[in-house]
Design brief:
Blueprint lengths: L1 H8 L4 E4 L7 H11 L6 E4 L5 E2 L2 E2 L13 E4 L6 H11 L3 E4 L10 H11 L12 H13 L18 H10 L6 E3 L7 H13 L4 E3 L4 H10 L11 E5 L2 H14 L8 H8 L12 E2 L8 H12 L6 E6 L5 E2 L3 H12 L4 E6 L18 E2 L7 E3 L1 H23 L10 H12 L8 H10 L7 E4 L2 H11 L3 E6 L12 E5 L2 H18 L7 E6 L5 E10 L3 E8 L2 H4 L4 E4 L5 H10 L3 H5 L9 H17 L4 E11 L6 E3 L2 E5 L10
Parallel strand pairs: 1-2, 1-5, 5-6, 7-8, 9-10, 9-11, 11-13, 13-15
Antiparallel strand pairs: 3-4, 12-14, 16-19, 17-18, 17-19, 20-21, 20-23, 21-22, 23-24, 23-25
Helix pairs in contact: 6-7, 8-13, 9-13, 10-11, 11-12, 16-17, 19-21
Length: 654
């Protein structure tokens, strides 16, 4: 498939079937080939014209006298079978179809037309899929003077798909950064394998999720001359308002702006105006725009600070940089003097790049890029892009150290035990007790408990475990125990335990008369701790995804949770904690002791292995809550729900 893309991206001749002098997508393709002086043969094909745009037009592709490498086709979908047969007879190497009316049509007719394309596997490109987004992205790059190596829309992906494009880009000498938008993954394993090739080639892969603006800035910053060597950021602005916005957003996005080291801060104070304040981010004030000594002092201070690895230079408008202006000279000499630092220029807003700001003198040498310094727009998306860059740098460092390579290799005998536990409850959720046994098998701490079948046993178990205790119904058919009235907390006496047992069993029978009641679980009550959640849900294509978040209202109302794909190593688990908006609550605020973060990391790593071992067997696992005690005291799973995969949808790994 990779070699097939050569015919699309570097064709030796192009036939344009269905082109006419009238304005259209395919007419624009012909005009672009002529405008940008494509130096290979171009053959318009349309029986209604003798020549188009000064080129001879042919009635059928078979009449073209020379070989055709690529055919670009825009005809009604009903004509495609005949066109494909003509192309096959001509020996066309690749076909790019700009036609709707295949999978877009519901029902048997759309499927039939789509199969007509797939029958020509190996020879064709496809109609644009999200072609509008692709065109918008190209337009943004043109407006921002961002150079493009290749732009492809993969269409309905009957043959070539996004993964083939990634595979090609991974080995393409002209590609450094890859942007990607996927509506549907045809072959997830193939896509992940191609993404791995991009990672090996150290080519960042930027996936569009929400905003084209955010994607643009992320693509821009990934063009930096090198990756940052650490997480520390410095920012130089000429606006107090920009400092405020940047400081607030940095906290939201988990970006670290350390204080400027004292020697550097003093260097700035010596030249900064009396109304200026030395912070990070720093406001040099509007006056400093025309004051190179102040600019130079700030750049020098941040460039020599060992805790600052990336320096953001925030200007006001969306203008090019005049290399011959005082500021342009300061920036150029600083980036040349400190090549180990990463510099990023950004504006405070979005807009079309202008040669100069309003009222400014005409530029002498305006540029849109400078020696590997990305030019971004908008503070918010710049900080999002900066976060992505730091994460990518850490990802590559982990790959170099090989920390992820040892993860995901489970104990085969333990996996066999886990599978046997799942087979013991065919087609139904495990009871909480069975779920905790599964967690304990993988070394995840759980609360002490005993399952009892009488009130007298409940009293004895409570005394042995130690008051206070929690008591919960045990039934595979009752997964929402609280809703069923099957939970009693803070039981502090033996007689109360007997009464709680009777009440729980009564409520359970009333809630579901057909439910199997295995008894009541008497459990230790963990005192104190912070509530967190750990969960897994399995995607039919990509397999398990692991969720970690703060419990209670934080996940229900604020939706403060992080999703990652296993395997998780120590660094990845710590990153999940740091990525939470409320991470500070776990690290200790307002005099609180920090939670046992090492215990969370340990649970996440072990849970990751459990999820990999039961891939295809389990649809969902929910540890809610995982109570995390103070540093050094560990964590315990208080409740656990394990839901098996639906038969016929997910199958266990071999």
């Amino acid at each position: 498939m990779t070699y097939a893309l050569t015919h699309f991206l570097n064709p030796q001749s192009v036939a344009i079937i269905g082109v006419s002098p009238n304005p259209s997508f395919i007419n624009a393709i012909l005009n672009n080939l002529l405008r940008w002086q494509y130096d290979k043969p171009i053959y318009p094909v349309n029986p209604n014209y003798r020549d188009i745009a000064g080129l001879q037009s042919y009635a059928r592709i078979g009449e073209v006298p020379q070989a055709v490498d690529l055919a670009v086709v825009s005809v009604p979908s009903r004509m495609m079978p005949d066109i494909l047969q003509q192309c096959e007879a001509k020996g066309v190497q690749a076909i790019n179809i700009l036609t709707s009316g295949f999978e877009e049509i519901t029902g048997a007719e759309g499927a039939r037309r789509h199969r007509l394309l797939t029958d020509f596997a190996g020879k064709l490109s496809l109609a644009f899929q999200s072609g509008g987004l692709a065109l918008n992205m190209v337009q943004i790059c043109v407006d921002r003077q961002i150079g493009l190596a290749h732009a492809i829309s993969s269409g309905n992906e009957s043959d070539l798909e996004c993964a083939d494009c990634l595979e090609f880009f991974a080995t393409d000498a002209h590609t450094q950064v890859i942007g990607c938008f996927v509506e549907q993954f045809r072959h997830p394993d193939k896509f992940l394998a191609a993404a791995e090739q991009c990672a090996i080639a150290r080519k960042p892969l930027v996936m569009l999720k929400v905003s084209l603006d955010e994607m643009t800035e992320t693509l821009c910053i990934m063009h930096a001359r090198h990756l940052p060597t650490g997480r520390g950021f410095g920012a130089i602005t000429f606006s107090g308002g920009a400092v405020g916005v940047m400081s607030d957003l940095a906290a939201d996005y988990g970006l670290h702006f350390p204080p400027i080291h004292e020697a550097g801060a003093q260097q700035i104070r010596e030249v900064l105006y009396e109304y200026g304040t030395v912070n990070n981010p720093i406001d040099l004030t509007g006056q400093a725009v025309y004051d190179p000594p102040v600019q130079r002092a700030a750049f020098e201070a941040m460039a020599t600070d060992p805790n600052i690895h990336t320096i953001l230079i925030a200007s006001g408008g969306t203008t090019l940089l005049d290399k011959q202006s005082p500021m342009g000279k300061v920036i150029a000499e600083t980036i040349h003097k400190y090549p180990e630092k990463l510099f990023v220029r950004t504006s405070q807003m979005y807009g079309v790049l202008r040669d100069k700001a309003f009222g400014a003198p005409d530029p002498v040498d305006p540029v849109s890029h400078l020696d590997g310094v990305p030019f971004l727009q908008g503070i918010e998306n710049t900080l999002r892009a900066a976060r992505a860059l730091v994460r990518y740098a850490e990802f590559q460092r982990q790959r170099q150290t090989g920390t992820r390579g040892d993860e995901g290799r489970g104990d085969t005998s333990r996996r066999a035990q886990a599978l046997e536990m799942m087979r013991a409850a065919p087609g139904q959720a495990l009871t909480e007790s069975a779920g905790k046994q599964l967690l304990a098998l993988y070394g995840i701490p759980v609360t002490s408990e005993r399952v009892v079948t009488s009130a007298a046993e409940a009293a004895r178990a409570a005394q042995e475990i130690g008051f206070p205790v929690a008591m919960k119904i045990v039934s595979p058919q009752i997964t929402h125990k609280t809703e069923a009235g099957g939970v009693v907390l803070h039981v502090v006496r033996a007689d109360a335990a007997q009464a709680a047992f009777a009440r729980i069993m009564h409520n359970a029978r009333h809630y579901n008369a057909q439910a199997e009641l295995h008894g009541v679980s008497v459990q230790e009550m963990v005192q104190g701790g912070r509530e967190t959640i750990v969960g897994m849900t399995s995607d039919p294509q990509f397999g398990p995804g692991i969720v970690f978040g703060l419990g209670g209202m934080f996940v229900e109302v604020l939706q403060d949770a992080v999703l990652r794909v296993p395997p998780l190593d120590t660094d990845a688990a710590r990153e999940m904690i740091d990525a939470l908006k409320g991470a500070a609550l776990l690290k200790g605020v307002r005099g609180q002791k920090p939670a046992d973060l090492s215990a969370i990391v340990d649970v996440l790593r072990k849970f990751s292995q459990l999820c990999l071992d039961l891939r295809g067997v389990v649809q969902e696992i929910d540890i809610n809550p995982l109570l995390v005690l103070d540093a050094g005291q560990g964590a315990k799973a208080v409740d656990c729900l394990v839901v098996p995969a639906k038969e016929g949808i997910l199958q266990p790994n071999s």
